[in-house]
Amino acid sequence: MCGIAGIFHCGTPKPVDPERVRGMTDALAHRGPDGSGVWTAHGVGLGHRRLSIIDLEGSPQPMHSVDGRAVIVFNGEIYNYRELRRELEKDGARFRTDGDTETILAAWQRWGTGCLDRLDGMFAFALYDCDRRSLFLARDRFGVKPLFTAMLSDGSLAFASELKGLLAHPLTRREVDPLAVEDYMTWGYVPDHRSILAGVEKLPSGHFRLLEHQRDPAPPRQWWDISFTERARGRPDDLSAELLHHLRAGVSSRMVADVPLGAFLSGGVDSSSVVALMDEADRAPVTTCSIGFDVAEVDETGHARRIAALFGTRHHERTVAADGIAEVDRLVEIFDEPFADASALPTLQVCRLAREHVTVALSGDGADEAFAGYRRQVFHRREEQLRSVLPSALRSPLFGTLGRIWPKADWAPRPLRARSTFQALAEDGAVGYARALAVIPSELRDRLFGEGMQRARGDYRAEQALIETMIETPGRSGLDAAQYADLKFWLPGDILTKIDRTSMAVGLEAREPLLDHRLVQFAASLPEGLRIRGMQGKWLLKRTMERYLPNDILYRPKQGFVVPLAQWFRGDLAGEARRVVHSERLLQSGWFDRTALADLAEKHISGRSDNGRVLWQLLMLEKSLARLDLAR
Fold first, then answer.
1. Which one-letter DSSP state was computed for residue 120?
2. What integer is the mean pLDDT of 571-594?
3. Is residue 425 part of a domain?
4. Which of 90, 355, 487, 523 could lock 508 by a disulfide, CB 3.0 to 4.6 Å apart?
């Protein structure tokens, strides 16, 4: 795992200062503490920071092809590189190293952009072809590895693994995109179709760019997509056997490393499944790491210990205070852009613990998106069934009225919090799912935003991008569309961003075996009744893992990392809540209404409503803007 950065002149080639590229890669030193390198030629410069995982001494970067006609900087891992290498050697390719980086160079020279279809892995890379005088930028299928780009005023394109790499270049604009603030306040993160900085873009997952000197910059082109259009046929037992084959392949392929390897273990279905299959694949005990909390209601270490004992792992755990607010400034430094998924706090802690024992850790990320494990997906399927029997002319007035008059009732038991369900049922499926996924609904944003933001965003609403993604889904049903949106929108923007930044911050490589693309494509082909049965999500996955895991682990309610935001902002952080809603950095921007923010904080502190997540978003936004030295 590494950090990459570079500069490419799209217009007339100009000399590239190697020290400028070095400054960009130095800003990414945490991603690659084991080595660094810079290469420049007329019109191009490539930089690299290395975390050694495979071929520890023999694969320095930037790396040249054997014939010297291509140069690459690469962040990620190619799990099938040995098979590719053998195929390329049969065609006459020669290799000087034992790693995966050189395999990409040879694959490019053999297949051009078609090489991407043959790569099984997580990656973002920049490859300069000296003969074609072109720069090839590519990102993996799901967006596990990030890549930021920016067109600069001198006609060059700069790229980097993280925003801080671009900010090390003096020509990067430091102007906030107000539409990114609208996106952030809606979702709690800045999705991949936008950046907090105007003029900065993220290469979308499953896309590449091919740039040439003295030509206008080519836009991103999609090279891979997930499809829900086909349905697998067969008995559940046969499909379960096929699923197990894919699960084993995904896990075993990601266990290749020349450094110590382990796994995150929460005691939930996904991480426990990964550990079970790791134990099956290797005689040596698996190294597992868990984080516990000093509040019993949110502590899962008992479940993790049980799985560790079942498989005889070398288990490590650490109990941390559930108030890990002391880490907020560190999170702001790690993420650059505002990022308000509070589970990043315990994720950073478990990455730190893992790094004390291993250099690579396997996670269970991706299973909820691929197999329909989120409650919102289960409810969405039920809502879609109701929409199919009730015409819109009846649904809209009935449920729209109920949604308006039903109390918000944050304090009530979950079954009585029906307002959001009624509001969703009044809309079509895509609009309803966007409402379910939004952290701050449009009505509340309208109250919080000031006149400046109202003018800046115009008719734009953050939900529209997700709605369009669902409408364009290659699939058959509303559940297909919801899962597709989660895989294309939520997964890269939130989940994979969280694990990439927190793991890289401590020099740890995280791998996601449940995001093997063949496994995910198989999951997308499952009939809906094998994804969700009754109110049970991930049904076939859980049934398949019954041979390995106890039922009370497989079928217990989903928990995840829980952070007590509401309690924080009514307790020790009440003063911080009041401070942030009166922050001049936020208020002088014109984005927010002063009175509405103050009212939001006081209602929360007094217990009249639960605005903990909104206050957390405001806090992370204000601190991120301060770190970037941005106001508007």
1. -
2. 92
3. no
4. 355
Q: In whole angstroms, how far apart are CA 13 and each of 44, 131, 149, 157, 513?
A: 8, 15, 18, 12, 41
Both tokens of 301, joined, read: 């270490």
Beta bridge partners of 291: 318
Q: Assess contact for 52 and 114: CB atoms under 8 A.
A: no
pLDDT 10s digits, 246-263? 999 999 999 988 889 999
User: Which spans in 170-235 are helix H?
Assistant: 178-187
Confidence band (pLDDT; 50, 70, 90) for 423? low
Q: Which of 554, 575, 603 is the last residue of a domain?
A: 554
Q: CA-CA distance, 98 to 75, in Å (whole number)?
A: 17
Per-residue model confidence (pLDDT) at position 428 = 83
If you search the block for the tokens 């072809």, which residue do you land on? 129
In a domain, 322, yes or no: yes
Domain at 286, CATH number? 3.40.50.620
Structural domain for 35, as ranges: 2-222
Mean pLDDT of the chain, nearest integer: 91
Catalytic residue among 2, 115, 289, 351: 2
Which pLDDT belongs to residue 178? 96
Residue 395's φ and ψ, nearest 5 degrees, are -60, -50
Q: Residue 51: is its pLDDT beyond 50?
A: yes
DSSP H or E stretch at residue 123: strand 121-129
Residue 208: other Cβ atoms inside 10 A: 20
The answer to whether the CB of 79 falls within 8 A of the CB of 101 is no
Is-catalytic flag, 115? no
